[in-house]
Amino acid sequence: MVMATVLLVSPFARVAQAESPSSVPTYRTLRTVRNMDIVRTLDRKSLFISADPVDTAVRYLINYKGKKIYEGRKPQYTDTNRALGVGTHVYSMMAINAAGERTTPNVASYTVDPFPTILPPISDSIVGAVRVDLSEQLVYVFDDRAIFPRLLATIQMSSGTGATGRPGSTPMGTFNVWSGDRGKSERARFSSTECMDHMIRFATGFGGGNIGFHSIPYRCGSSPKQYLTNASEYLGIAPSSHGCIRLNDYAAAWLFRNITERARVSVID
Q: What is the CATH number for 205?
């Protein structure tokens, strides 16, 4: 008889433990967050997360990959703190009422696809002018025609992370290529451990160093290459360099092979 009593009571004991005051309260009667949506902003550097308001909610909580990034009164948030590289970005949102009760999290994701950079064959073009757009994180490459130059390619890049006019930033203005032998794979060093290939110099940085186009940095002497950062994820998304213009390996080699001596480089924001 005692054993029967234990069997009957035990399940109820587990339920009581699950609903103890220490557990997170949830809405009992109101709906969860609906129509959660994620869109990329026009500058392609941020994601905007939004949803329909929830009745009686006093604030909203948004998590990115399980970590809180926003808590506020509106069910919307512009995420500018992520380096929005290629891949899937997962967010969740829940509503909270005055009593502290929370809705079940609604989860949504946004996938950043690789930018379709299509380049001509490695030695099929002559580059006479390049326009670097810092706000777009894109490089526009033109042929050498004096009148109505033809756009050859649009390439993702990453510029300097420093504030405008400060060390680590990419200087703006009009320059000419002054170093980088066409057809020769020039290698450069930033430090004793950091190397890059296909260096095309066109300016001097605010700290006195050379500024140019080059491939993604890698550990000097490594074979195969061991890239020092996840810099490829920043290309076309956000600044990540010490002031130079970083390109993917093929784009750097293509530009190095085809750019003309004294080619014009315009850097704008």
A: 2.40.440.10
Last residue of a domain, one of 80, 112, 144: 112
Which pLDDT tens digit goes with each residue over 166-223?
888 999 999 999 876 444 557 777 777 888 888 999 998 887 788 999 998 888 888 7
pTM: 0.59
* Vertex 202 angle, CA 179 and 244, to 5°: 110
Nearest CA among 241, 249, 86, 43 for reference residue 155: 249
* Residue 188, token pair as written in the block: 């450069």
- Indicate whether 260 and 185 sit together in one domain: yes
Over the stretch 12-24, which tens digit does the pLDDT of each residue have?
A: 333 333 334 344 5
pLDDT of residue 44: 66
Domain of residue 56 covers: 25-112
Cα–Cα distance measured from residue 43 to residue 137, given in angstroms and rounded to the nearest whole number: 9
CATH of the domain at 54: 2.60.40.10
Q: How far apart are the first and last CA of the chain?
A: 83
Domain count, the chain: 2
Other C-beta atoms closer than 10 Å to the C-beta of 222 total 12
